[in-house]
Structure formats: structure tokens, C-alpha cells
Amino acid sequence: MKKLVLSTALAAILALPALAPAQAQEAHAGGNMIVTYKDDVATLDPAIGYDWQNWSMIKSVFDGLMDYEPGTTTLRPGLAESYEISPDGLTYTFKLRPGVKFHNGREMTAEDVVYSINRAVDPATQSPGQGFFGMIAGFDEAAAGKGPLSGLSAPDAGTVVFTLSRPDATFLHIMALNFSYVVPKEAVEAAGADFGKKPVGTGAFKLAEWTLGQRLVFEKNPDYWIKGVPYLDSFTVEVGQEPVVALLRAQKGEIDIPGDGIPPAKFVEVMGDPEQAKLVVEGGQLHTGYVTMNVTQPPFDKVEVRRAVNMAINKDRIVQVINGRAIPANQPLPPSMPGYTKDYAGYPFDQEGAKKLLTEAGYADGFDTELFVMNTDPNPRIAQAIQQDLKAIGIKAAIKSLAQANVIEAGGAGTAPMIWSGGMAWIADFPDPANFYGPILGCAGAVEGGWNWSKYCNKDLDAKATEADSIVDPAKADERLAKWSEIYMDVMKDAPWAPVFNEQRFTLKSARMGGADALYVDPVSIPVNYDYVFIKE
After folding, report:
1. Where is the Solute-binding protein family domain (predicted)?
2. How far apart are CA 208 and CA 221, in angstroms?
3. Is 190 helix (H, G, I), strand (E, B) or coil?
């Protein structure tokens, strides 16, 4: 099939080896860094691991065909040295970097990539990421256990070819997800169900020790394919550490990063101390907290009512409830997400304007409703603040504070008129605007058990989303993002949500840690990008 001809400049970029980012100071090699967590790590199997705690560890042990520039949401080639996309957007051909070795010493080949992707799709693996591969030809059969993906092949040891059933501009992001990371078949089969405890990858670090309930030790991979990386000789993850105890240890210089973050009860104290505050790095997350309104139920079937709710909520006051650990949101996408509309102000906080809208909708005297919320702090307090704001315009919202599972069940079933999404709010799987639409705003998610709790379904916007994701030429990325910006502006006109805030990440690091600040609030390596940080001393 004829290949898409990339521009000379772009082709050159795609063929470059991955390089270390510019550092705020000169990098030093050596030393061991210590990170703590309250809970033990569940697994380091990239096909199975799917929580914020193990993401960055898995990322340091394994690699995928694609990766991100450290500390950013910018895609770059990983194990792939280069790639080509066919003009119809249905065929992706990856050329692998030669000489890349697994931790067991064997050289990685294209067959390993084919095995790894098929393993993630195979229902026997029970991968929570199986659905991400739905655009690959033969997915339905493979996901049902009827054999490997028909759209995946290795014509030679250095080439991998994917054939898609539909154009999908998110495909390169999927190739950077942990579910796509490459594993050696012989190591998986030797370890069996224990592969998550005995991981073997191609990454910058390899697991040297795992004492359950105590610690994990990762040692530098001397054969790593990116020369000069990592800088650390090792890093240790200590588990079973209560966050308050971890903070005290960090204050004493005994550990380098409390992985669970600064405890909420200590946040004001830490940020109020200049010496401690200067060691805290703040960065945006790919996160939005929002209130959903079930558009299929009166009175939220009227757009004026939904817009009134948007105008009633005092977002600045709610940010104060969580000690300023967020910024007010004005649209579904967070500011750090590509496609965010920078010049959009959103709905103003205007109670009188909100009352006027309710009157126009036929609810001059307001109405009674219910606001569902997860019952862990600070979510009930946030719900109470929202409740007070709604009361000021005549909406009496009874709070239903329930366990997370019960709120999710009510949202999926469509029985909750309103839901505050906190504690369950959307954090993107990958840094692309499409990931904020399909599951939580698109028609596909507005089904029984789906995550689109507003049950909002705009088929015209679904068609525009499909059109946007059919633009697969990287040279037209700006055109695609502009289309996504328009989609989210149209969503805000329909107002199925009231976006409330975008949480910020605050990472406390010891004075001896070096590297660009962005590495400590890396949007795709939570909580820290171990491969590129270093010890200054």
C-alpha cells in the first residue's frame, strides 16, 4: 500500500533517537532515591497494571513503540525508530530500533511486539486496557478469544505493521500506553501468573528486589538503549508508610518523595513554610472535576436549567474548600490537555442571571433534586458548597453521600439527577482530547453502566468527533485540535456538565533531588519520571 509521504523535517524528527530533556542544572549520575507509599504495589505487569501508583514504575521497567518527551504531553518515537502512516490512515508501519535488549539479555524483535499486543487483547490476560485496541482489524474476534489480531503482523524482525478497521488519530497515543509495552514471551511463560512480580522489560530500570509489604528496589539497566539514561543507580519504593509519617520523614531528609503527596491536613502548614514550600513542585493534571446533570430527566432536559446551574456555582469558593489545590474549570478539558480552548471564559458566576434562566425555563420558584457524591473527604464538603450555591437560586438539592461503587452504579443506571464527580473525576488515560469525549460525553458512553452520567448524546458532535479523529497526518495535528476545540465549545453550549475545577499536583521533593521541575509533575509519569531525575550531591 502507498505510504503517506512525510515532510522532510517531520521524517527527520521521527528518526531521531530519543534524547534526554534539557535540565534545569547539570545532571549527575549515581545514587539511590527513596519514594514512599501507603499501599503495596499490586503488579508491575504492563498489561494489567492500571493505577496511578504503579504507572511510573511500570514505565521505568518497560517501553512501548511510542513515548512522550519527559515532562510533557508531546509524543515521540520509543522502541520504534520511525513510523509511516498510509494515506487512508489505516496502515501504520513501525521500524524498530536495532540492538534493543530485554533485561534478560535477549534482543527484542518485531515478534515480541506482536506477542505483547495480542497478549493485552487476549481475554485470558484480563487486561483492563483491552478496549483501547478496538481500532485494530480483527479486534472483535481476538477479544473474544478466537485467535490473534488479524491486523497485526511482523514482516521481518525489525518491522511491525498495524492495519486498522477505521482511521484513528489516537492510535499513536495507544502505542505509548502501558498496555502496549513490549514483554518477552519466554519470561511471561516462565513466571506465569507471577510475571507482575517478576517483570522483564527493556526499560531504564530493572526490578532487583521486591519484599512484599516492605520495599521494591529498581536498579539501573546498564544496557538501556537511550545512552546516558537513567542518571540514578537505583531507586527504592518503601510501602506501608502512612502519608503523615512519610511527610515527617521527608522533613527530616530521610526520604526523597512522599509518593502519596502532601496530606490534606498538612497542606496549608507545608505551603506556609517558605523552606518547605520551595521544595514543592506544582503542575497541572489531565483532570477535571465536574457536576453532571441527567439531560434525559426533567428539569435537566432543558438547556436553560443546565446553564443556570453552571452560573450558580462559585468555583473560587470551592477551590478554597480544598485549600487551593486546584484551579477553577470552565470547560471539560483541563488546561494541560492539547485542544484546550485558551480564550474561552466559560459561564460567569452570576446568581441573578441564573435565576433569570430558571424563570425562562418555567422554574421561577426553583425545584427539588438530588446531588449524589462519593462519601470520602473532601467530596461531601464540596457537595455542601454546591448545595448552598444552588439553594441561592432556588434549587433545593438533597445530598446523597454514598460509597464510590454506589455512586458509579447510580450514574451508569441513569438514576442520579446530579453527580459531583470528585474522587471519581476523569483523569485522562492519555493526553489527547478524544479521551475526554467518547467515554464521558459521547453517545457510546450514554448507555446502561456507561461513564457518561449526564446521558448526553449529541449525534452531530459524535460525527464531528469521528471526523476529527480521521485526521491522522501528524502534519495536520493543529487542524485536528481545532476541531476538538469546537466540539467542546458546542458541549458547553449544551451544558450537560458544570465543570468545577482542575486539580493540581503538588510533589514535595528533597533538597538533594535535581532535574527539571516538570519531571516531578510529569502528566504521564505519576508521581515522578524516574528515568530523568537525579541526585545533585
Report:
1. 75-445
2. 10
3. helix
